[in-house]
Amino acid sequence: MSDSIQTPWQKTLHWLTAYAGFPARRLPPKAELLLLIATAAADEDLAVKNPQNGKIPFNANYNAQIRNYTAQRRRAHIKCDNSAKT
C-alpha cells in the first residue's frame, strides 16, 4: 500500500493540528497569514512543476539551456561575404 503525496495544503493543515492545536487554538492573525501565503506559494510552485500535459517533463534548467544554445549558435555563425564577385 503506497501513501499518496500530500499537497502543501494538507501538509500545512497537518502541521497546524499537530503543533499549533488547530482548530481549538489559532495562531496570531499575522502568523496565519504568513503561513497561508507560504502554502499558496508552495502550491503554485507544485503546479508549475507538474504540468497538465504529462508528456512534457519539467526542466528546471530550461532557460539556462536555451541561453547556452543561443550563445553556441552565435559563436558558430559563419558570416558570408558576398562582396567578391566571381
Distance between the termini: 77 Å
* Computed Rg: 25 Å
Element-by-element helix/strand order: HHH
Total count of strands: 0
Helical segment count: 3
Proportion of strand residues: under 5%
State the oligomer: single chain
The percent of residues in helical segments reads: 55-70%
Largest sheet: none
Apparent shape: rod-shaped
**Overall domain count:** 1
Contiguous low-pLDDT stretches (5 residues minimum) are none
Structural class: mainly alpha
- Summarize model confidence as the mean pLDDT: 80
Structural account:
- With 86 residues, the protein is an all-alpha fold.
- The chain has one domain (8-76).
- The protein contains three helices and no strands.
- The longest helix has 21 residues, at 29-49.
- The protein is rod-shaped.
Task: Summarize this structure as a short list of keywords or feature phrases.
86 residues; mainly alpha; 3 helices; rod-shaped
Architecture blueprint of SSEs:
Blueprint: H1 8-19, H2 29-49, H3 62-76
Compose a concise summary of this entry.
This protein has three helices and no strands. With 86 residues, it is mainly α.
